[in-house]
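INFO  loader      accepted 1 record
INFO  loader      residues=766
INFO  predictor   begin
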Amino acid sequence: MEDFDFKLQPGQKLERSAKPSGKPLISIATAYYNCKDYIMQTANSILNQTFPFWEWNIVNDGSKEEGTKEILEKLEKLDSRIHVINQENAGRLVARDNAVKKAKADLVFILDSDDVIDKTYLECAYFTMLTNPDATWAYADTVTFDGQEFLWKKLFDCEEEKKENLLPVCALIKKQAILDVGGYAKVDKDVHEDWHMWLRMIEKGLYPVRMNFYGFWYRSKKEGGTMASIKNDASRQKHAEEEIKKQAKKIKHNVTALQYPMTTNFDFDSYPYVFDWDREKVNVDDKKNLLFIFPWFKLGGADKFNYDLLSSIDRNKYNITILTTEPCEYVWRQKFEKFGEVFDLTSFLHRRDWPAFIHYIMKSRSIDLVFESQSYFGYYVIPWLKSYFPEVPFVDYIHAENWGWRNGEYPRDSTGIAGLLDRTYTCTKYLKSEMETEMGRTTDNVLPVYIGVDETEFDEIKVNIEDDEDLKEVYDKYKDMRKILYCCRISIEKRPILALKILKKLCSENSNTVLFVVGNGPNMQQMKKEASKLGLQKNIVFFGSKNDVKPFYKACDVELICSLSEGLTLTTYEAMAMKRPVVSANVGGQKELIDNTCGRIVDNIQKQQDLFIEDYSEEEIDRYAKALNEILDSKNYEEMKENARKKILNGFTIGNMKKIMTKEIEELTSNKSKVGLDSPKYREMYSQYLVLYNQLDQRTYFSDKGGIGVDGNFYEEKTQRLKDQLWKNPAWRGFIKFLQKTGIMKAAKKAGVDRKIKEKVAKNLK
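INFO  predictor   done
INFO  writer      dumping tokens
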């Protein structure tokens, strides 16, 4: 995976100090032999676990290495949960089995003495097993480090498992299952012993759960211990392969693993539940605890706000927990992990179990503030959570409205639960106004906060075009041409085909024009094909995604933004900080930053509702072409460049955003929620509300995936049955009145679903 940072190994330092009492829920089993150079990193990765309810049984298999006694004694003194058992040398597998036999917990976690694990591994694995009680073991994907560096992510396949071991040795396993199949030492050679174990379990019809995150870090440099003698022993290897073949032949049936993320089997016929959790707090310090609910980890406008906000939070004062509700590329997760503990819910839980896990997080961390940022599920679950935690402030951040998607997108969802939110932050003043005028939102608790940009980083003087190798290679060819930057995610709402037609128009007037395209996305191939059809090959360069776009701002003369929907684009901030004028569609809050002194605002002709129609009018194309020409040919171009940066420095810096949000978080966490709520009375109805809206969301989801959507009959029967159940409940009418008071029923008055609900309510209230 591009940009995965192998240097971010878990356990490089000790970070936590929790020492809970009571029976452990997980027993970690480790065989130790001559591994003093690595054992402390392994220990730190265990001690840093977000789930502290474990014991660690280390069986010392007669190590002869100098200093072994001292380092193991040090570990035992370090934490009462660590137990060292000494034995005469009997082999690694006997030692591992003895560690398993000593386990007090029903779940055993197998970990070698030189490997390490992500700090959330045990917590994720525990709840994976808890919510899939028929599964026998749970495991995560593997990072190989220290020597070789590569990522191991392979889907489980029973037939393939007979030929190749797809499973890591590190896993959380039911103790009784290990004992029932004879343990690890049942094989007489300690090669492929884990593979042999998995095959024996599969023979009995047992199956695993694969979690979809890189949790296990396997050290490839096995210099010490038993593995050193195994590595080059051909006879051992041959014998082990023969034993594997024998065992594989015993498997007469197919076994299917559960594998996350799961996009099917979302069961919302039953109401949300909570785990029976009576353990002490996970966090034992005096810090306040913040919960952030995001859809994913990317670096668009909204996500940049989230990232910068997290970077501004004083971690000496606050603990941070981050939940995500959509699968995302792992490299971005690494960037957010430095701020706190991260749980991608899609990677280890069925969606039906998400509410219970979020409730557990709220309870186990004693959360002081919930910050929701553009997660649909986050919005759905807030009313239900509020019924359990009425004194906790809930706030949200919104980046843009989109009338072509979900009847207004996130502002619609925010308006729907406005009465339960202590504060809503919007990226622009425009968005605040739009929520009030178009959605009926009372905006007394809405605060516009601009994303901002780091003006010290985005400074033309500090940036070189040569900093990007691809740009450096081609720049001289286009040096004397008029260069326009189109930098964004190449998706339908950014209107990439319109950008091409604008370029075609410009080139018809002045062929000395080139478009630099920086970014990638679902419509990239379409854009490339259309560019070829329009004969623009000599006037366009596709650079793909770039982590650092600053050299491209410097290389180009002007930036083009022709989107149909935006908040206030991150690239606008960045380009202007780099002294580059911007030509932008009049969408969102773009005109709050751009004026004629530093760019041009262009009124769109196409409506948001017509997003998927790519037959753009000549008038709209001409408007953009005219605006670009006015800047590119302007005698005041240098003055416009200076004005662009001045505009940024005057209230649009990241420092200004951080100052505002630091004050907000301090104030909100120092007070109980100002939102009144009769929690016990309406808890069941909140559960029903969550079920209904998740059903509707899943219909939309499967429409996106090529299934039958909202207007079809996929989920229609289930959803209607659910609605009928709701209306038959006499208390529901009282709940509807309550929702009306809190603002929930004001959500998206333009939405068909809400119209139907409103009509049903009116009928039932007569």
